[in-house]
Amino acid sequence: MKRLFLSVVLVTVYLSGNTQSIVPAEWKFITDDKPEYIDSSMNDYWWDDISPLTVWERQGYEGYDGYAWYRVKVVVPSSMKRNAYRYDGLILNLGKIDDSDITYFNGHQVGSTGQMPPDYSGAYDVPRSYRIPAGYIRWGKKNTIAVRVYDAGGDGGLYGGPVELTNMGNPDLLTLGTDIAAQDMIFKGAPDIEIPVTVKSGFRKKYRGNLVLNIVTDFGDEFTTKQSEVVVKKKSISRICFHVGDLKPGFYKATLSLESKMGNKKYRFNFGYEPEKIVSPVDRQPDFEAFWERTRAELAAVDPQYRMIRIDSLCTATHNVYLVEMRSLGNALIRGWYQVPVKPGRYPAIMQVPGYSSTIVPSYVNYGDDIIGFGLNIRGHGNSKDDVNPGFPGYILTNLDDKEKYIYRGAYMDCVRGIDFLYSRPEVDASRIAVEGASQGGALTFATAALDNDRIAVCAPQVPFLSDFRDYFRVATWPGNEFKELVDQQKKMTWDQVYYTLSYFDIRNLAPMIKAPLLMGAGLMDEVCPPHINFAAYNQVTSEKAYIVYPAAGHGLPEHFYHAKMDWIRTRFGLK
Q1: How far apart are CA 436 and CA 459, in angstroms?
Q2: CB 451 within 8 A of CB 416
Q3: Which of 100, 280, 358, 439 is catalytic?
């Protein structure tokens, strides 16, 4: 679908000092993947027009997953040349890219984040910033930026900005960091801690500046500010240690600021203190357990009408792949992907559940030659939209005024019905069933393990959603903004009514019902499902449990968690 925008304009913005920023107003785009797209001389006039500031689903490509290319022509003025050679290049900022990318400048690869298939690894919440060597640049002429993108599901492409090509400057010669012994940045023990920080200078002379450490709570309340003068010898590193006292269990956001006439720099990091002692008590309604017993009984009365359709094009020498259809609460039709080893036998199974608005595809459920994979698309997701499809945004608000009809009552029961399906299969070892998922999938993992606690052997949620809503709406912008519009602007519900309904679906209230061992993954920099709400639910789990925290990760965890999770599941399945 061709998208029409304003005519192409290349805007050069003059900033302070000698820096410039070249911002392409419009890019070219194609949903395809050919090696010749790297070629800077290729004519791409016939490609679609697209903005690099928002995902492609919002620009006419709804539902598209897979490979795509972005290209743009940029004239780099000769006035930037002197600075580029002085600092060894320019900086290309692309904002964030969903999911993985390889970026080229005039045919030269200048950076990549995540990994392309077959060893796919996403990095949708990582800002891209790549150095362009001065020797790659055609001064005063057109230069081609080409970005190859792979999106595995949900939204895709460049988004978030800023998208710019800028001079490097004095701040680029400074690097700030921390040297905390705890690799996960989680402090335990005494509430008085030391935070060692590092200042690395690339200047050819001594650097002098003022270093300020500001710490706020994850609710945004000021906690403390510390400062120290710093002197760094030419091209060397200095270390400074800040003492911070009287910490309370929770998470903290820190900003390290370096200020000097020679150049300023900021560095942000988060850390936690005794997160397992965060107090976030349950707020169950008196009929909480009766509500879910009645809901389970209502699901049991629905004939599942299981149907398996072998998809020959997806089958391999080692696995058969099936499209699965079944009926869930309210007789809603839901679907999933079922992957079974060809070799006869009874196997353990893992059910994967989807993130908010995302789609489970067959490639997601390949867990190896000795495990059955089942990817379930709950109602309103992926290929389960026939009977229930409220769309996004707004899914989370659907029928919020009635707990009997609220969208997650059916969604949670879809997961239980998925376990029903696995139990119905003779090739599944019913004593070894796991459930796992991320974000909304993390919440669905909690809910499945709680509401079907006698049939789940292990569970592995990551960055779980739908937890501790009162605090959630304080520590994160979304989804609280959707609820605020409903309550404060549309006046359709009161906050008491909102929290009443949500209390039945809050995974913090479901967590005490979990019996299975649980492994949770969390990202300290997560602004979508901050670690505070992850641990609000985690701390209510009374079964065997463990967590892994990644200090540099946001809402997307590194590949390490996938391997750690699978090693953990396989060990409990007796496969190691």
Answers
A1: 6
A2: yes
A3: 439
Q: Which of 352, 359, 519 is nearest to 437 (CA)?
A: 352
CATH architecture of 10-168: Sandwich (2.60)
Please say if the pLDDT value at position 13 is more than 50: no
Burial zone of 12 (CB within 10 Å; 0-12 exposed, 13-18 middle, 19+ buried): middle
Residue-wise pLDDT for 274-314, tens only, equals: 999 999 999 999 999 999 999 999 999 999 999 999 999 99
> Sheet harboring 319-327: ordered strands across?
307-310, 319-327, 333-341, 372-377, 347-352, 428-438, 458-462, 518-523, 545-550
Helix boundaries (H) for 452-512: 469-475, 480-484, 495-503, 507-510
How far is residue 18's CA from residue 362's CA, in Å, rounded to a whole number?
51
DSSP 389: -
Backbone torsions φ then ψ of 87, nearest 5 degrees: -105, 15
Give residue 47's pLDDT: 96
Residue 273 and residue 251: Cα distance in Å, rounded? 6
- The answer, yes or no, to whether the previous bond of 479 is cis (omega within 30 of 0) is yes
Q: Please name the helix (run of DSSP H) or strand (run of DSSP E) that holds residue 546, with its range, or none.
A: strand 545-550
Catalytic: 532? no
CATH 3.40.50.1820 assigned to 288-572: yes
CA distance 256 to 262: 17
Q: What is the pTM (predicted TM-score) of this model?
A: 0.81
Average pLDDT over residues 515-524: 97
| Three-state DSSP class for residue 405 | coil
Catalytic-labelled residue, pool 151, 218, 526, 532: 526
Instruction: Verify whether residue 312 is a known catalytic residue.
Output: no
Q: What is the enclosing helix (H) or strand (E) of 531? A: helix 531-538
- Is the bond into 393 cis (omega within 30 degrees of 0)? yes
Phi and psi torsions of 451, nearest 5°? -80, -15
Dist. CA 234–CA 174, nearest whole Å:
11
* Peptide bond preceding 162 in cis form (omega within 30 of 0): yes
Contact between 160 and 190 under an 8 Å Cβ cutoff? The reply is no
Residue 363 is a catalytic residue: no
Residue 209 CA to chain centroid, in angstroms? 36
Average pLDDT over all residues of the chain: 91
Q: Residue 241: exposed, middle, or buried by beta-carbon count in 10 A (0-12, 13-18, 19+)?
A: exposed
Domain layout of the chain by residue ranges: 10-168, 172-277, 288-572
CATH top-level class for 172-277?
mainly beta
Question: For the residues of 79-141, what is the DSSP string, one character each?
Answer: GGHHHHHHTTSEEEEEEEEESEEEEEETTEEEEEESB-TTS-B--TTPEEEEEE-GGG--TTS
Residues contacting 333, CB < 8 A, separation 6+: 325, 326, 327, 384, 386, 387
